[in-house]
Amino acid sequence: MLSYMQQYQQDRRKAPAIDEVADQTEAYFESLQLLERMHRLMLDLVKDEFERLGRHDLTPVQALIIYNLGEAEVTAGELRSRGMYQGSNVSYNLKKLVSMGYIHHERCDLDRRSVRVRLTESGQDVRRTVHDLFQRHAEGLAVSGILDDPPLDQVNMQSRRIERFWTEQIRYIY
């Protein structure tokens, strides 16, 4: 059995050095800033694509709501929990999308308080536009080799781990 001092020294050897922790902290802060900027840039890319096509009726957030809805029929709450609509009011945007004819909504038979939504044919067209934009970007990035170092699937796995950590932190608060 190890003495307390031996255990302490062994634990210190395993623990990252203070400089290493500081470096990881700085890298984490930089990642947070990059994520925020990338999200804003993604919204700008969607906006520019629709402007290029002469479509000025949708905001980028509305286009992403349509894209994330996809082929599914879900409740507004499910849609909100799936997406990232940076400070937007999902209920307001859904009402606008229904009034513009991009989304069909109806009350759920089992729970009349719940509203189920799905894309109309016009909504499917918008979804294809966003999908084609993302597809072109993915192909360009693949050809350039940007997605290979590190492999994007590893980056995604790390992002999912951070997402899970954040989710647990939020749940822990309540």
TrEMBL record:
SMART domains: HTH_MARR. The keyword Amino-acid biosynthesis does not apply. Keywords: DNA-binding, Transcription, Transcription regulation. Coiled coil: none annotated. Residues 28-164 form the HTH marR-type domain. InterPro entries: HTH_MarR-typ, MarR/SlyA-like, Tscrpt_reg_MarR-type_CS, WH-like_DNA-bd_sf, WH_DNA-bd_sf. The keyword Cell membrane does not apply. SUPFAM superfamilies: Winged helix' DNA-binding domain (SSF46785). GO terms for molecular function: DNA binding; DNA-binding transcription factor activity. One of its GO terms (biological process) is response to stress. PANTHER family: TRANSCRIPTIONAL REGULATOR, MARR FAMILY, TRANSCRIPTIONAL REGULATORY PROTEIN. This is Transcriptional regulator, MarR family.
